[in-house]
Specification:
single chain, Four Helix Bundle (Hemerythrin (Met), subunit A), mainly alpha
Length: 211
Amino acid sequence: MSDRLDMTVMYAMHNRLRRELQHIAQAATRFDSDPRHIPRAGSDWEHFRGALRAHQSAEDEALWPVLRRALEGRPYDLTRLEAMEAEHAAIRSLVRAIDETAPTAPGLAPDLFAELTEALLAGLGAHLDHEEDAVFPLIQAALGEHQWDRFRRLHAQRVGPYAPQLLPWLLDGADEQTAAVVLAAVPEPARRAHLTRTAAPARSSALPFQP
């Protein structure tokens, strides 16, 4: 049976975060005194951190509350939402700890940085799997089209101002069908700007994505 609600954009975001986790894991293995080798030092980390923040804040503000109301009287399912909120808080703490780590500070133990990075890799990866396995089916069963559309609009508002930086990052490695669905969901100016940019010679962005 096909899903009632189109969650392509959610899966696209999750899968892009998973791909970026692999890059972070590779960068963490090169930890040394050179700050360019620290995952938090480059624009890739800024794109990852900003996209994660926008995505999770939209869920916290516009998805979990409406889903909680729809699941009233179902205590077992409500515990799944509590788990989502707890996992979000843990992930935010890990990102903040990595962000605040000073790799060149005297006495910094490489093992500590590696421990934080490994915790993020494990925690976020497990959270994305948990959300898809346990909560996506609840969304499909309990929410109506208008409720889902309201969340999608807020999600788009969160990332909209940064679409010129976000879209190339989000669609990097995505298949053609996913890319088409994602582009169809964004405002026309952002879609047109992205298509123009991808048709031009590749160049690095001077503006990091930091919502």
